[in-house]
Design a protein that fits this description.
The complex is a heterodimer. Chain A is mostly beta strands. Chain A has strands at residues 3-5, 10-14, 19-21, 24-26, 31-38, 45-49, 60-61, 72-74, 83-91, 99-100, 104-109. The radius of gyration of chain A is 13 Å and the shape is globular. The mean pLDDT of chain A is 92. By secondary structure, chain B is mostly beta strands. The chains are: A mainly beta, B mainly beta. Chain A binds chain B through residues 32, 42-46, 49, 86, 93-103, and chain B through 3-4, 31, 33, 35, 41-43, 45, 48, 50, 55-56, 59, 91, 93, 95, 97-98, 100-106.
Chain lengths: 110, 112
Protein backbone atom coordinates (compact mmCIF):
# COMPACT_ATOMS: atom_id res chain seq x y z
CA UNK A 1 0.00 0.00 0.00
CA UNK A 2 1.15 3.53 -0.61
CA UNK A 3 0.76 6.39 1.80
CA UNK A 4 1.62 10.07 1.86
CA UNK A 5 1.91 11.89 5.16
CA UNK A 6 1.87 15.63 5.60
CA UNK A 7 2.31 16.11 9.34
CA UNK A 8 1.28 19.77 9.46
CA UNK A 9 -2.38 20.64 8.84
CA UNK A 10 -1.60 24.32 9.19
CA UNK A 11 1.60 26.28 8.82
CA UNK A 12 1.77 30.00 9.43
CA UNK A 13 4.87 32.05 8.63
CA UNK A 14 5.63 35.70 8.13
CA UNK A 15 6.26 37.22 4.75
CA UNK A 16 9.92 36.97 3.86
CA UNK A 17 10.57 34.02 6.15
CA UNK A 18 11.65 30.61 4.85
CA UNK A 19 9.00 27.97 4.30
CA UNK A 20 9.27 24.21 4.52
CA UNK A 21 6.26 21.98 3.98
CA UNK A 22 6.96 18.43 5.03
CA UNK A 23 6.00 15.33 3.11
CA UNK A 24 6.88 11.73 3.89
CA UNK A 25 5.81 8.74 1.91
CA UNK A 26 5.55 5.01 2.22
CA UNK A 27 5.80 2.92 -0.92
CA UNK A 28 7.42 -0.39 -1.67
CA UNK A 29 8.30 0.35 -5.28
CA UNK A 30 9.81 3.28 -7.14
CA UNK A 31 7.73 6.39 -6.59
CA UNK A 32 7.11 9.51 -8.53
CA UNK A 33 6.42 12.48 -6.26
CA UNK A 34 4.45 15.65 -6.90
CA UNK A 35 3.39 18.82 -5.16
CA UNK A 36 0.00 20.29 -6.06
CA UNK A 37 -1.31 23.67 -4.91
CA UNK A 38 -4.91 24.77 -4.47
CA UNK A 39 -5.57 28.48 -4.07
CA UNK A 40 -8.76 29.49 -2.36
CA UNK A 41 -11.69 27.68 -3.98
CA UNK A 42 -9.75 27.05 -7.19
CA UNK A 43 -8.74 23.90 -8.95
CA UNK A 44 -5.71 21.86 -8.00
CA UNK A 45 -2.65 22.79 -10.03
CA UNK A 46 0.64 21.04 -10.41
CA UNK A 47 3.44 22.93 -8.69
CA UNK A 48 6.36 20.50 -8.95
CA UNK A 49 7.17 16.95 -9.92
CA UNK A 50 10.41 15.48 -8.75
CA UNK A 51 11.58 14.23 -12.12
CA UNK A 52 11.60 17.72 -13.60
CA UNK A 53 13.81 19.20 -10.87
CA UNK A 54 12.47 22.66 -11.68
CA UNK A 55 11.95 25.62 -9.40
CA UNK A 56 8.42 26.96 -9.73
CA UNK A 57 7.40 30.25 -8.09
CA UNK A 58 10.59 29.98 -6.03
CA UNK A 59 9.64 26.56 -4.63
CA UNK A 60 11.91 23.55 -4.79
CA UNK A 61 11.62 19.99 -3.56
CA UNK A 62 14.18 17.22 -3.44
CA UNK A 63 13.32 13.56 -3.27
CA UNK A 64 15.23 11.89 -0.44
CA UNK A 65 14.78 8.17 -0.88
CA UNK A 66 16.74 7.37 2.27
CA UNK A 67 14.38 9.40 4.42
CA UNK A 68 11.39 8.78 2.11
CA UNK A 69 10.71 12.48 2.06
CA UNK A 70 9.85 15.13 -0.51
CA UNK A 71 9.74 18.37 1.45
CA UNK A 72 8.75 21.59 -0.29
CA UNK A 73 10.89 24.64 0.38
CA UNK A 74 10.99 28.31 -0.43
CA UNK A 75 13.60 30.67 0.98
CA UNK A 76 11.40 33.78 1.18
CA UNK A 77 7.64 33.44 1.54
CA UNK A 78 5.29 35.80 -0.26
CA UNK A 79 1.68 36.59 0.64
CA UNK A 80 0.43 35.08 -2.62
CA UNK A 81 1.86 31.73 -1.53
CA UNK A 82 -1.04 31.32 0.91
CA UNK A 83 -2.87 28.19 -0.23
CA UNK A 84 -3.42 24.47 0.40
CA UNK A 85 -0.47 22.34 -0.62
CA UNK A 86 -0.80 18.65 -1.35
CA UNK A 87 1.99 16.16 -1.71
CA UNK A 88 1.17 13.23 -3.98
CA UNK A 89 2.69 9.95 -5.05
CA UNK A 90 2.31 7.64 -8.01
CA UNK A 91 4.00 4.47 -9.12
CA UNK A 92 7.02 5.38 -11.24
CA UNK A 93 6.09 5.19 -14.90
CA UNK A 94 2.50 4.43 -14.01
CA UNK A 95 -0.68 5.96 -15.32
CA UNK A 96 -2.49 5.25 -12.07
CA UNK A 97 -4.20 7.80 -9.92
CA UNK A 98 -2.23 9.92 -7.52
CA UNK A 99 -2.28 9.17 -3.80
CA UNK A 100 -2.52 12.49 -2.00
CA UNK A 101 -1.55 13.54 1.49
CA UNK A 102 -4.17 15.37 3.54
CA UNK A 103 -2.65 18.71 2.71
CA UNK A 104 -1.05 21.59 4.56
CA UNK A 105 -2.74 24.96 4.75
CA UNK A 106 0.00 27.56 4.37
CA UNK A 107 -0.76 31.04 5.63
CA UNK A 108 1.66 33.84 4.95
CA UNK A 109 1.23 36.71 7.37
CA UNK A 110 2.11 40.23 6.28
CA UNK B 1 -8.71 24.94 -24.25
CA UNK B 2 -11.06 25.62 -21.35
CA UNK B 3 -9.50 22.87 -19.31
CA UNK B 4 -11.42 20.18 -17.48
CA UNK B 5 -15.04 21.23 -17.16
CA UNK B 6 -17.22 20.01 -14.33
CA UNK B 7 -20.90 20.57 -13.70
CA UNK B 8 -22.71 21.49 -11.63
CA UNK B 9 -20.32 23.66 -9.65
CA UNK B 10 -22.64 23.54 -6.65
CA UNK B 11 -25.47 21.21 -5.81
CA UNK B 12 -27.68 21.13 -2.76
CA UNK B 13 -30.02 18.19 -2.48
CA UNK B 14 -31.98 16.27 0.06
CA UNK B 15 -31.06 12.90 1.45
CA UNK B 16 -32.32 10.11 -0.73
CA UNK B 17 -32.18 12.03 -3.98
CA UNK B 18 -30.10 10.98 -6.95
CA UNK B 19 -27.08 13.14 -7.77
CA UNK B 20 -25.24 13.16 -11.09
CA UNK B 21 -21.94 14.97 -11.47
CA UNK B 22 -20.48 15.53 -14.91
CA UNK B 23 -17.01 15.94 -16.30
CA UNK B 24 -15.64 16.91 -19.67
CA UNK B 25 -11.92 16.18 -19.85
CA UNK B 26 -9.36 17.98 -21.97
CA UNK B 27 -9.41 16.78 -25.54
CA UNK B 28 -6.70 14.21 -26.18
CA UNK B 29 -6.32 13.11 -22.58
CA UNK B 30 -6.73 9.36 -22.24
CA UNK B 31 -6.99 8.99 -18.47
CA UNK B 32 -9.74 10.34 -16.22
CA UNK B 33 -9.94 10.32 -12.45
CA UNK B 34 -12.66 11.11 -9.93
CA UNK B 35 -11.58 12.32 -6.49
CA UNK B 36 -13.57 13.28 -3.40
CA UNK B 37 -12.28 16.00 -1.09
CA UNK B 38 -13.39 16.37 2.53
CA UNK B 39 -11.88 18.11 5.51
CA UNK B 40 -11.53 14.87 7.42
CA UNK B 41 -10.15 12.58 4.73
CA UNK B 42 -8.52 14.95 2.26
CA UNK B 43 -8.43 13.88 -1.37
CA UNK B 44 -9.53 10.31 -2.01
CA UNK B 45 -9.32 8.59 -5.37
CA UNK B 46 -12.69 7.09 -6.18
CA UNK B 47 -12.20 5.62 -9.63
CA UNK B 48 -10.11 6.07 -12.72
CA UNK B 49 -10.51 5.29 -16.39
CA UNK B 50 -7.96 4.73 -19.09
CA UNK B 51 -9.13 5.00 -22.69
CA UNK B 52 -12.71 5.10 -21.36
CA UNK B 53 -12.32 1.77 -19.54
CA UNK B 54 -12.63 1.67 -15.73
CA UNK B 55 -9.30 0.47 -14.38
CA UNK B 56 -9.63 0.74 -10.62
CA UNK B 57 -12.84 1.45 -8.74
CA UNK B 58 -11.63 0.22 -5.37
CA UNK B 59 -12.02 3.70 -3.95
CA UNK B 60 -15.73 3.89 -4.64
CA UNK B 61 -17.19 3.92 -1.14
CA UNK B 62 -20.40 1.96 -1.66
CA UNK B 63 -22.73 0.54 -4.24
CA UNK B 64 -24.58 3.83 -4.10
CA UNK B 65 -21.74 5.30 -6.14
CA UNK B 66 -21.29 4.55 -9.82
CA UNK B 67 -19.26 6.12 -12.61
CA UNK B 68 -19.37 5.86 -16.35
CA UNK B 69 -17.34 7.09 -19.26
CA UNK B 70 -19.35 6.45 -22.42
CA UNK B 71 -16.85 8.26 -24.62
CA UNK B 72 -13.55 10.11 -24.45
CA UNK B 73 -15.16 13.46 -23.86
CA UNK B 74 -17.61 12.77 -21.06
CA UNK B 75 -17.86 11.07 -17.70
CA UNK B 76 -20.46 10.96 -14.94
CA UNK B 77 -20.36 10.14 -11.26
CA UNK B 78 -23.71 9.17 -9.85
CA UNK B 79 -24.79 8.81 -6.24
CA UNK B 80 -28.10 7.09 -5.61
CA UNK B 81 -29.51 7.48 -3.04
CA UNK B 82 -27.46 10.34 -1.62
CA UNK B 83 -26.71 10.69 2.09
CA UNK B 84 -25.47 13.63 4.18
CA UNK B 85 -22.06 11.98 4.57
CA UNK B 86 -21.60 12.25 0.82
CA UNK B 87 -21.28 16.02 1.17
CA UNK B 88 -17.89 16.92 -0.28
CA UNK B 89 -16.17 18.51 -3.22
CA UNK B 90 -15.82 16.09 -6.11
CA UNK B 91 -12.95 16.68 -8.51
CA UNK B 92 -12.48 15.27 -11.93
CA UNK B 93 -8.99 15.19 -13.42
CA UNK B 94 -7.21 13.72 -16.38
CA UNK B 95 -3.99 13.46 -18.27
CA UNK B 96 -2.00 11.62 -20.86
CA UNK B 97 -0.50 8.36 -19.64
CA UNK B 98 2.25 9.19 -17.13
CA UNK B 99 2.06 12.94 -17.45
CA UNK B 100 0.65 15.67 -15.27
CA UNK B 101 -2.94 15.47 -14.05
CA UNK B 102 -5.17 18.43 -14.84
CA UNK B 103 -8.14 19.01 -12.58
CA UNK B 104 -11.49 20.69 -12.94
CA UNK B 105 -12.77 23.28 -10.51
CA UNK B 106 -14.80 20.71 -8.63
CA UNK B 107 -18.45 20.12 -7.83
CA UNK B 108 -19.43 21.06 -4.30
CA UNK B 109 -22.17 18.73 -3.12
CA UNK B 110 -24.28 19.33 -0.04
CA UNK B 111 -26.74 16.65 0.99
CA UNK B 112 -29.23 17.80 3.61
Amino acid sequence: AQRVTQPEKLLSVFKGAPVELKCNYSYSGSPELFWYVQYSRQRLQLLLRHISRESIKGFTADLNKGETSFHLKKPFAQEEDSAMYYCALRRWGGADGLTFGKGTHLIIQP
Amino acid sequence: DAGVIQSPRHEVTEMGQEVTLRCKPISGHNSLFWYRQTMMRGLELLIYFNNNVPIDDSGMPEDRFSAKMPNASFSTLKIQPSEPRDSAVYFCGGGINTGELFFGEGSRLTVL
